[in-house]
Amino acid sequence: MATAQVSLPLPVLPEGWSAPNDFKVVGTLSTANQRNLEPVGPHFLAHARRKRHKRTFSEDERIQAQENVKKVEDDDADEISEPENELMLGRDAKDWKGQDHYAVLGLSKYRYRATDSQIKRAHRKKVLRHHPDKRAATGSSEDDSFFKCIQKAFEILTDPVKRRQFDSVDENANVDPPSKKAASKSSTAFYKLWGPVFESEARFSKVQSVPMLGNDKSTKEEVEHFYNFWFNFESWRSFEYQDEDVPDDNENRDQKRHVERKNNNARKKKKTEDTARLRQLVDDCLAGDERIKKFKKEARAGKDKKRLEKEAEEKRVLEEAKKAKEEQERLLKEKEEAEKAEKAEGKKAKEAAKNAVKKNKRVLKGSVKDANYLLPEGEGASAKRIDEMLGDVEAVMGKIDNEELAALAGKLGALKLADEVGGVWKEEVKRLEGAGKLKPGELKVLGS
Fold this sequence. Notes:
Blueprint: H1 19-22, H2 42-53, H3 57-75, H4 86-89, H5 101-104, H6 116-130, H7 132-138, H8 145-158, H9 160-168, H10 180-183, H11 189-201, H12 220-231, H13 253-288, H14 290-370, H15 383-399, H16 402-412, H17 418-434
């Protein structure tokens, strides 16, 4: 075992230091042990690897680089690993606008959803595989054209503005709308086929979050919100990526302005066409959406129900009005009949009262006649006597009312003798004079 000796000077003792006075024992040294020391660390391992495999420094670095590439590929195999076809490997780097940057980096299944971390890892993987130095070390005759494609794809996808422009025209990220026949195969086919279409289109929305298609359980409010949003969709999509290259030379400024105007007009046209395409897409989805038909059917049923209820209410009101009118007519008729009957009864009563008055007057006149005009029996009444007597009777009848007339007739009706009849008349005349209805001496015969 190799040994090494190191000479180190001891520190200088302070001035005035005295061993008996200043030295203090604080501990004792342990017994010395002999141990074996071995070299370790990455540099020793690299040295040992070179010695074991008899490699030079360059050979070992090349082999290690290849193993690192394989390790990186194995680590990313499940996430960002895609097969490379010969057509892609043979692409011309100058035609970078026509290349699929996501496919170049092996991110076709992620596309606009790829994260910055995934892009960087995919780029590192491609660089380790296609770097010109690595190709040259392996003896490959492949030129560096595809490596330039990789670098251009990385440049585009790591620049937010350029990536947004590329995503705007990335047709490979679009999902084609299903046919009417395919969407109507089953109750769930419509949502399974149309859902991804709107998920793809949602990446262009200025407004977040974007409502999705939903399913057959979606409410009417959710469905209406979905279609209202998409019919008024605000897209950030632009088409600068497809612009014609503008000349950089300052000598041809007219040509530069011409190309810029041409590019602006082309963008506007493509924007208009894209808006019309999206509107037609939403119209097609709306036309095949069974939920809309269901909601319309429910709305019609609700309207029919309201209409029937309204008609029933109107009919009920009309019937009630008719019944009220009939009841009013009936009551009016009954009232008229009652008034007519009452009038007839009144008329009849008046006629009866009138007849009773006439009868009572006949009784009063007949009483004096039957009593020989209050003369003794056997003595004949002269015309004068008769006129005076009847005049007095008329005078008395003119001073009394119908009830008094009926009462007086009742008293005189059963009397025949002159004295009795005269007594009743004299009593009545006396009552009338007492009441002030007759003046003393007003009557010629009955008042004497």
